[in-house]
Design the sequence.
């Protein structure tokens, strides 16, 4: 399960409204850390932590250009997520296959309405 | 023909469709009767549902707890909003990880389809912050869809 830490990181990165807003802004194109921070009334260290979470989760890329820190969305940052979705689609599928079998061979017991 | 379909709809919905070779009465009951639920609502192999409570009445509560037998587990709590046997179940649920996820409003319908049943489960995720941020930005819908699905599907990790 090598994908697990990355999935956990992706999930916790996406679980915060500020970080989702940062991703939404970056979907429009590259922006520097200070440009990204502008709309938010939070301290610079707090904002930097949000950026770090997104970088660590592989969702965004940050580089250094002089005093600027341009960020952009990482291509494929959500691929782990997509894989996970596929696994869960399979989990649904497994459930319903089990239900198929159950419906075919209902357990022997007194009938009662739920 | 009984292939599962899992897709997004609009900005906050997820729709699951599946056909069963059994009448609506049976499929409906399998979604409410704890004795039946713990036989199938388990997700990947290796998971069990040690706690499965469903009051199965309008306003009733339910609680499902899953365990992988290795110390891993989580639970869902919810309330039944309305029941129209055997064709419709409306409920609200949230996942505890242990912090609760936003409420997921779920409408499940069971329509007779020949000798079988076509089930449609429509989930509505109320995450308006996410939706607002995405709409404001005109962000690629695919990503939002992934996130919305992920949230829901995460809530069902190993469970559905």
Sequence:
């Amino acid at each position: 399960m090598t994908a697990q830490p990355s999935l956990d990181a992706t999930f916790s990165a996406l679980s915060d409204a500020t970080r989702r807003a940062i991703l939404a802004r970056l979907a429009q194109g590259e922006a520097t850390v200070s440009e990204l921070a502008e709309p938010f009334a939070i301290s610079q260290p707090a904002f930097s932590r949000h950026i770090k979470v997104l970088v660590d989760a592989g969702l965004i890329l940050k580089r250094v250009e002089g005093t600027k820190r341009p960020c952009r969305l990482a291509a494929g940052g959500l691929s782990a997520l997509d894989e996970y979705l596929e696994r869960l689609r399979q989990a649904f599928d497994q459930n319903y296959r089990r239900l198929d079998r159950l419906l075919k061979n209902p357990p022997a017991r007194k009938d009662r309405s739920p | 023909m009984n292939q599962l379909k899992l897709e997004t709809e609009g900005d906050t919905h997820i729709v699951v469709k599946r056909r069963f070779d059994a009448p609506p009465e049976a499929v409906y009951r399998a979604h409410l009767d704890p004795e039946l639920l713990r036989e199938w609502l388990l997700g990947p192999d290796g998971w069990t549902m040690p706690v499965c409570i469903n009051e199965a009445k309008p306003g009733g509560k339910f609680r499902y707890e899953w365990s992988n037998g290795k110390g891993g587990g989580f639970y869902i709590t919810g309330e039944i909003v309305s029941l129209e046997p055997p064709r419709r179940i409306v409920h609200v649920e949230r996942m505890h990880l242990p912090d609760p996820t936003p409420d997921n409003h779920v409408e499940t319908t069971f329509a007779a389809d020949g000798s079988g049943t076509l089930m449609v489960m429509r989930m509505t995720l109320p995450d308006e912050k996410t939706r607002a941020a995405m709409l404001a930005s005109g962000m690629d819908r695919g990503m939002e869809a992934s996130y919305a699905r992920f949230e829901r599907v995460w809530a069902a990790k190993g469970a559905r």
In short: Chain A is about 55% helix and 10% strand. Chain A touches chain B at residues 11, 14, 17, 20-21, 23-25, 27-28, 78, 81-82, 84-85, 88-96, 98-100, 102-104, 106-107, 109, 112-114 (CB under 8 Å). Residues 4-101 of chain A form a domain with the Arc Repressor Mutant, subunit A fold (CATH 1.10.10.10).
